[in-house]
């Protein structure tokens, strides 16, 4: 299940209140300290919810394509042995 987190939402509360066998958090841009804290929380929350639930995250960067973000979410949803991971989705570099 995809959960889109606003910059002000409590990541831990969202994970603890979620149901299902897998959640993928899409973490909106935040201030650098808040982003570091959000990233640091993913693995411990995955351990806390295991084995009943897998917890992963996608962090879209500036200019990230929505289709690429959705592909990353789908990958983590279907990677049944993966938990506690973060995928960064960035803007494709221009080709010369």
Describe the structure.
With 96 residues, the chain is of the alpha/beta class. It has one domain (2-21, 28-88). The chain is 40% helix and 22% strand. It contains three helices and four strands. It has helices at 11-17, 32-49, 66-78, and strands at residues 2-5, 22-27, 54-60, 86-89. A four-stranded parallel sheet has the order 1-2-3-4, sandwiched between helices. α2 links the parallel β2 and β3 (54-60). α1 runs parallel beside α2. The longest helix is centred in the middle third of the chain and has 18 residues, at 32-49. The radius of gyration is 13 Å and the shape is globular.
List the secondary-structure elements in sequence, H or E: EHEHEHE
Report the average pLDDT across residues: 95
Number of continuous helical runs: 3
Instruction: Give a count of the beta strands, DSSP E runs of length 2 or more.
Output: 4
Q: What low-confidence regions span 5 or more consecutive residues with pLDDT below 50? A: none
Q: Which class best fits the helix and strand makeup?
A: alpha/beta
What integer value in Å does the Rg equal?
13 Å
Binned, the helix content reads 25-40%
Number of domains: 1
- Assembly form of the protein: single chain
Largest sheet: 4 strands, parallel
Strand content: 15-25%
Q: Please give the order of strands in the largest beta sheet.
A: 1-2-3-4
Overall form: globular
Beginning-to-end CA distance, first to last residue = 38 Å
